[in-house]
Amino acid sequence: MPEPKKPEQVSGEEAQPSETSGLFVLKPESVTATKGKDVTFVTKVDSSSLTRKPTMKWLKGKWLDLGSKAGKHLQFKESYDRNTKIYTYEMSIIKVVDGDAGGYRCEVTSKDKCDSCTFDVSVQAAQQEQQDNILEAFKRSGDAGEDAGDLDFSALLKKRERKQQEPKEEVDVWEILKAAKPCDYEKIAFQYGITDLRGMLKMLKKMKGEEKRSDVFLRKLDAAYTVDKGHKLQLSVEVDDPDVPVKWLKNGQEIQPSAKYVIESVGNKRTLTINKCNLSDDAAYECVVGEEKCSTEVFVKEPPVTITKLLDDVHTVVGEKVEFEIKVSEEGATVKWMKDGVELNRDTAGSKYRFKKDGRKHMLIINEATQEDAGMYYAFTTGGESKAELEVEDKELEVLQSIADLTVKSAEQAVFKCEVSDEKVTGKWFKDDVEVQPSDRIKISHVGRTHKLTIDDVKPSDAGDYTFVPDGYALSLSAKLNFLEIKIEYVPRQDPPKIHLDTSSFGNKNTITVVAGNKLRFDVEITGEPAPTVCWMKGDNVVAEAEGRVRVESRKTLNSFVIEGAERADEGPYSITVTNPAGEDKAEIYVRIVDVPNPPENVKCTSVGEDYAAVTWDPPPFDGGVPVKGYLMERKKVGSSRWTRLNFDVYESTAYEAKKMIEGVLYEMRVFAVNGIGISQPSANSKPFMPIAPTGEPTRLTVDDVTDTTCALKWRPPEKIGAGGIDGYIIEYCKEGSDQWVQANETPVEKNQYRVKDLPVGEKMLFRVVAVNVAGRSPPAVIAQAVTIREIMENPKIRLPRHLRTKLIQTVGEKVNLVIPFQGKPRPLVTWFKEGVPLEDKSVGTRTSERDTILFIRSAERSHSGRYTLCVQIETMQDNADIHIQIVDKPGPPVGVHVTDVWGFNAALEWKPPKDDGNCEVTGYTIQKADLKTKEWFTVYEHNRRPSCTVSDLVMGNEYSFRVFSENICGLSDEPGISKNAAVITKTGLAFKPPAFKERDVNSCPKFTAPLVDRSVVAGYAAAISCAVRGNPKPKIIWMKNNMIIGEDPKFLMQNNQGVLTLNIRKPSLFDGGVYCCRAVNDLGQDQVQCKLEVRVAQEKAEGVKK
Questions:
Q1: β strands within 329-441, DSSP E
Q2: What is the mean pLDDT of residues 95-118?
Q3: Which end of the chain has the least Cβ crowding within 10 Å, N or C?
Q4: What start-end ranges are recorded for coiled-coil regions in this protein (predicted)?
């Protein structure tokens, strides 16, 4: 792995040791990797403060999760140190390519905690070793003088002056950041080598917070906001003056209220709401109040763009147009195209490549493909990638019409004609491997796609094999010219019929071979006087049709048998019989029809790997009459309509291994059979198959438990899983020294543990575990040493939890659920006792398993308190543990509360502890006093620990009563203890015996001493109206609005504090305005006051309504 390059130190800062922040103990550093080599990044996370295992994500860019790309190229590793509680995570990039360059981020999360860090990867080409000329070091220097020769060794020993480096100008990066826009922070951080962006933003925010506080804004906008595309965003500030108007600007332009932008003003708060954010809302926003303003930057984050339709492999010929097409999940998305690791764009592509967008479709078009364009093409989006292979082969010349054999007579004209697919192709004609030269009698022509050789006045010397060879192609078309010689002989008047059958051109005697679909014309010369009668037969059937596909054409001395578009049914023996009065003649021929073979059958995939698949098929049932030379294979992705040729040379075997496939993609294959006639129709498509590699071997295989007949195993999943996932695990075992492995489970198990049963006692056994998926079995994970199948005796022991080693206190009515683990082999006998007696209480339940026992009470009562004993016993060995349970409740009231002494403004109280302490210690008392006139209770002391107290600061002339509440850990008692006698506070000084007088009647009818006042309030802000009243007995207060009793309306809160009456109205609206009345009533009469309440709208809202 290349050594990571450390970022340069920012000028203006002192070098300090790096301090970890958040959860990371070690962060990955940015590196410059060499193309083709491996690079590894390591990060460490401290989990000592976490309650659960952290989750690590490796991301590229903003959203591309690299966890789904794990495989040969990207590998991930995780380890944990129990002593230091530190997790170590590693990411390895195998054989770095140019596409791996860019920004990366690792993100760790655990419940409510999260931390992340970033690093960069740049890729450089492999350095070439340069061989310097060693003599250059010894060249004569200008300082050696006249005695120096061509080679000056002494010059190497001279002390040379070091070039002093010019001091770099110091730059304060923080001043640059404070003056820059938030959108430029990342660029500036990269320029000055700052890698901790999160720490930089925190520091910058702290520095900006030291600026002078604004006189206009109580709370400004944050430096930046991030919102997902399509979501709503609110920007809010608080101003000092609730009536001041504000303006909102976007990139310097004022924003007008609309359905898109909603501007609100409530009190001191000003809010701008942006609905359904899109990319056009990614801008700078400002809130302006008079001469002051505050600004922010809004970043609209697009969701990851995924590829919904993948690239298809393309097979084409030189000069053809090639189109690669994908579909993405979002319109307007950006797609990056690459070829063999090199990016393709409009600047570098020129006229060779064209890039086209049509909605969610993106196309890469190659005009006139060449051999250099062959390779792997990639398409990248923010949330996915796809690749396809382009294969370019030389253009094949297609024969549209081949040359036909000719049979001509002397002095007739012979014309050989053929037609090929390319008009530009030229060629040469050969006769018996000698090039034909044009002459007055022999003419060669080329018109469009048609090539002709015309021979006038045919002579016997013109007979032979003629061949047309196209220039530049390994192709030749041949035909034969048969010269029909007519012999004129003197014959008598009566001449028996004669069939002149020329079989010299036949491969086998009297056998004619015809390619299916071609035309057969067989001319037979017949002589005889008088003219004989001709009869053609196929087997026992007479062929006499003069028209149709199979017909007979008769002329004076020539009879022709014609088959248009030969078919397989036309194959068979044919005979011709000629008769006249002078005799009869007969000849037999055999017509053999050859054709392309039938398609191969039963194409199926037998096995798959990471990037390959093995395919087999059966030969075609009919070879077309010509032996099959081999096969051609094609494949395509499921859902695509484009087939890719896998081989260009004929493949002879019926088994083939297709390579260069993409793991996790469904494919189909088909096969063509090839014989000497041509290529068959394609076979039926194979069933879809997916190249998938088996997983790696399971890790950390250990023995968890052993008994006399069983063995429990545990393991971890393989480090490399791949696209096929894991279907389950197979567990196998065998005796030590044997190689006969026995499968323990019939079906794969999904859990990472298994207990192998029915093992022989005392035998030494080996175990192994294999992961299974659709690709097959993984390499096995094997136990290093043999395991002896024998249960180990283990003494019983109770592992009492720490919180149960002290008294367990629960409240009455709560649930009690105690889980106590224990150990011991064989399984011990568990018994529960309460106060030394076996537990028989039906309200207390117990449940015991192999490893723990549970004691549970659904609803605790005080009778459940006591000492519980757990006994775990194996034969004569046992272990005991005591658990003390205390069920507590609120205490009763104190007893005997009375006033023991009164002096001055003080009174002394005493009482006795409550009879019922709630089954726990009484922690204190709460004392309250009440004036007998008002009878309102006020707390004097809380948590008083003694059963006595002194109450001070009593009012002279008043008579007081007291009450006391007892308190424990459950709270105050429900009932207080009330003093039996009262404390009268008399005036101190000389004793004065007042004269007897008649007690004055203090009763009076209600009278308002302070009236209600008319008020005008702002809607949305709480308001209150107050008045004061007196009267004895205490009058009843009734509040009314517009002569309607308000009652228990939760919008209104009515208070009475020593005769001061207050009506609080929560957030009044326009409907709460009106006339409010307060009426006081007692037995002696009533009185009332009223006021008018006006509710007005805030000034900004009123102006908006007028507009």
A1: 336-339, 342-344, 353-358, 361-366, 375-381, 384-393, 399-401, 406-409, 414-420, 427-431, 434-435
A2: 84
A3: C
A4: none
Q: Which two tokens stand for residue 862?
A: 């005080």
> Are the CB atoms for 417 and 401 separated by under 8 Å?
yes
Domain limits, the chain: 24-124, 215-303, 307-393, 399-484, 495-594, 601-675, 699-783, 794-888, 895-984, 1004-1100
DSSP 8-state class, residue 173: H
Q: What is the number of alpha carbons within 13 Å of residue 1045 lying toward its C-beta?
A: 6
Tokens coding 354? 């064209």
| Nearest Cα to Cα of residue 369 among 315, 311, 312 | 315
Residue from 986, 935, 983, 928 nearest 959 by CA: 983
Q: What is the CATH number of domain 215-303?
A: 2.60.40.10
* Distance from the first to the final alpha carbon of the chain: 69
Whether cis (ω within 30° of 0) applies to the bond prior to 1033 is yes
The answer to whether 287 and 237 have CB atoms below 8 angstroms apart is yes
Rounded Cα distance between 578 and 583, Å, is 9
Strand locations in 609-726 (E): 613-618, 628-637, 644-645, 655-658, 667-675, 699-706, 711-716
Residue 219 bridge partners (DSSP): 238
Residue 15 has pLDDT above 80, yes or no: no
CATH class, domain 399-484, is: mainly beta
**What are the angstrom distances between the C-alpha of 644 and each of 388, 412, 607, 637, 671?**
11, 50, 20, 9, 12
- Average pLDDT of the residues in 1090-1095: 94
Q: What is the mean pLDDT of residues 419-443?
A: 87
Phi, psi of 423 (to 5 degrees): -70, -25
pLDDT, greater one: 787 or 61: 787
pLDDT band at residue 286 using 50, 70 and 90 as cut-offs: very high
| Per-residue pLDDT tens over the stretch 358-413 | 888 999 998 888 888 888 899 998 878 888 888 888 777 778 888 888 888 888 88
The CATH superfamily holding the domain 307-393 is Immunoglobulins (2.60.40.10)
User: Is the confidence at residue 133, as pLDDT, over 50?
Assistant: no
* Higher local confidence (pLDDT), 937 or 140: 937
Structure tokens at 217: 């804004």
The letter for the amino acid at 391 is E
CATH architecture of 495-594: Sandwich (2.60)
Closest residue by Cα to residue 197 from 58, 57, 30: 30
Structure tokens at 545: 């049709």
Residue 727: which H helix or E strand, with range? none
Given this structure, which CATH class describes domain 1004-1100?
Answer: mainly beta
Q: What does the alpha-carbon distance between residue 966 and residue 948 come to, in Å, rounded to a whole number?
A: 12
Query: What's the confidence (pLDDT) of residue 145?
Result: 43
| Sign of the C-alpha dihedral computed for residues 555, 559, 565 and 569 taken in this order | positive
The pair phi, psi for residue 762, each rounded to 5°, is: 85, -10
For residue 704, is it left (φ>0), alpha (ψ between -120 and 50) or beta? alpha
Listed ranges 522-526, 670-674, 737-741; the one with the highest mean pLDDT = 670-674
Q: Which residues pair with 238 in a beta bridge?
A: 219, 269
Asked whether 958 and 912 are in contact (CB, 8 A), the reply is: no
Q: Any bridge partners for residue 489, and if so which?
A: none
Convert 397-421 to b/e letters by CB count within 10 Å (16 or more is b). Answer: eeeeeebeebbbeeeeebebbbebe
Tens of pLDDT, residue by residue over 545-562, are 777 788 888 877 788 888
Specify the CATH superfamily of domain 601-675. Answer: Immunoglobulins (2.60.40.10)
For residue 144, what pLDDT band results from cuts at 50, 70 and 90?
very low
pTM: 0.38
Query: Residue 153: what pLDDT?
Result: 43
> Which residue, 308, 366, 306, 379, is CA-closest to 338?
379
